[in-house]
């Protein structure tokens, strides 16, 4: 049994910053994440994209933000259970909790902070019968590191921002040797600027744009070699490629969190904005996983929610201790 003061379910940016805020209150944290790395959406979906609305950082790559949050949390020596989804929460008679993961790892603490973001998210996959055979053999649903595609031929499918942005990035920065963007309609759902940019790049021969088309088949010997495209008027087109990257978005699902007796609304956990507590005393929900009137799914809002929730958690653990807010400028950061 792993013992700690606060079990944080979800090691995304919000869960990581909560470790720092808990540390200032001398509370120890242990994070659980179903992913094998910390950082949540920032690490999993867009590590190389710049974020422009983190206070004090005019621009920071999502992956760099995660690295910095890890450094900021380090003095408080958080524990990690990574690569294991939290599947059960049991409330004991004394009001404390045991959180068990899918692999049976048990964690015990008086407080549970759920920072589960969008929950367990899965990519939307195109209905190509043998696509699973080529997963990690040239088929990827998320671009984690554009360098992976250096000098490679890439076929990207999709009509939203992700497909447009990555096509532009891989082609404009001359990372991929060839970028083909396939979309089933002749109009796109993404930002107008990005749509215009793709059209300009296509006009200049830097991107090959194939609209009114769908990728319907994949072929190759133990790795992808060809995609078969069905064009509305030209019929079947075959393109040789090293990668097929369908970017059709992610399907969020709360996963196990939905079955823990928490009040759920709009696929998120309802909280009291006084302290981001849930309907179960001792369990808080912060970041993208919660919902309340006026909720904004932004990293900075999650940082605020965690800070407030931890003050309340401290009062719950130590009802007789007075907690006076101390500035870090005055007290510094006293690690464990
Ligand atoms: C492409 C893109 C661009 C974005 N750009 C911006 C931006 O510019 N500015 C901004 O502020 N926000 C941006 N966002 C939103 C931002 O990423 C989220 O608001 C932020 O990641 C929320 O952080 P979080 O820690 O609450 O959740 P997440 O980052 O979603 O992390 C939650 C973690 O919880 C884990 N988890 C869930 N359920 C369980 C379980 N049962 N057991 C174990 N682990 C579990 C997940 O695996 C995940 O790692 C963007 C999002 C996307 C997709």
Describe the 3D structure:
This protein is of the alpha/beta class. The protein has 2 domains: 2-121 and 250-331, FAD/NAD(P)-binding domain (3-Layer(bba) Sandwich), CATH 3.50.50; 125-246, FAD/NAD(P)-binding domain. 23% of the residues lie in helices and 27% in strands. It has 7 helices and 23 strands. It has helices at residues 13-24, 40-44, 62-73, 161-172, 192-203, 299-317, 328-331, and strands spanning 2-3, 6-9, 29-33, 50-51, 60-61, 79-82, 86-91, 97-101, 106-109, 111-114, 120-123, 153-157, 178-182, 208-210, 213-219, 226-231, 235-240, 243-246, 250-253, 264-265, 268-270, 283-285, 290-291. The strands form 7 sheets. The protein has a 5-stranded parallel β-sheet with strand order 6-3-2-10-22, covered by helices on one side. A 4-stranded mixed β-sheet has the order 1-9-8-7, with no helix packed on it. Strand 16 and strand 17 form a beta hairpin. The mean pLDDT is 94. Flavin-adenine dinucleotide is lined by residues 9-15, 32-35, 40-42, 45-46, 51, 53, 85-86, 115-120, 255-257, 287-289, 297-300, 302. Residues 9-15, 32-35, 40-42, 45-46, 51, 53, 85-86, 115-120, 255-257, 287-289, 297-300, 302 line the site of flavin-adenine dinucleotide.
């Amino acid at each position: 049994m792993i013992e700690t003061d606060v079990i944080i379910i979800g090691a995304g940016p919000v869960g990581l910053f909560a470790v720092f805020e808990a540390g200032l209150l001398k509370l120890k944290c242990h994070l659980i994440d179903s992913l094998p790395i910390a950082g949540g959406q920032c690490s999993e979906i867009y590590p190389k994209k710049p974020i422009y609305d983190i206070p004090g950082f005019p621009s920071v790559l999502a992956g760099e933000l995660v690295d910095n949050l890890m450094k900021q949390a380090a003095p408080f020596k958080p524990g990690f259970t990574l690569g294991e989804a939290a599947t059960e929460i049991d409330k004991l008679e004394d009001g404390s909790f045991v959180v068990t993961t899918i692999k049976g790892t048990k964690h015990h603490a008086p407080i549970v902070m759920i920072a589960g973001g969008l929950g367990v998210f899965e990519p939307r996959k195109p209905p190509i019968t043998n696509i699973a055979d080529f997963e990690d053999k040239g088929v990827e649903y998320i671009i984690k590191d554009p360098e992976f595609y250096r000098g490679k031929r890439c076929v990207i499918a999709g009509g939203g921002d992700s497909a447009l942005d990555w096509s532009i990035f891989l082609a404009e920065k001359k990372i991929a040797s060839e970028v083909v963007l396939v979309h089933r309609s002749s109009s796109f759902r993404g930002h107008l600027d990005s749509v215009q940019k793709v059209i300009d790049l296509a006009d200049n021969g830097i991107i090959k744009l194939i609209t009114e088309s769908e990728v319907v088949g994949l072929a190759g010997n133990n790795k992808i070699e060809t995609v078969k495209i069905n064009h509305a008027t030209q019929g079947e087109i075959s393109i040789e490629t090293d990668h097929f990257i369908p970017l059709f978005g992610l399907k969020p699902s709360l996963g196990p969190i939905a079955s823990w007796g928490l009040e759920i609304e709009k696929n998120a956990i309802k909280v009291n904005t006084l302290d981001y507590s849930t309907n179960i005393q001792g369990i808080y929900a912060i970041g993208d996983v919660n919902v309340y009137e006026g909720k904004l799914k932004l990293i900075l809002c999650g940082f605020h929610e965690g800070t407030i929730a931890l003050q309340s958690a401290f009062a719950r653990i130590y009802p007789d201790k007075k907690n006076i807010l101390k500035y870090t400028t005055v007290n510094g950061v006293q690690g464990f």
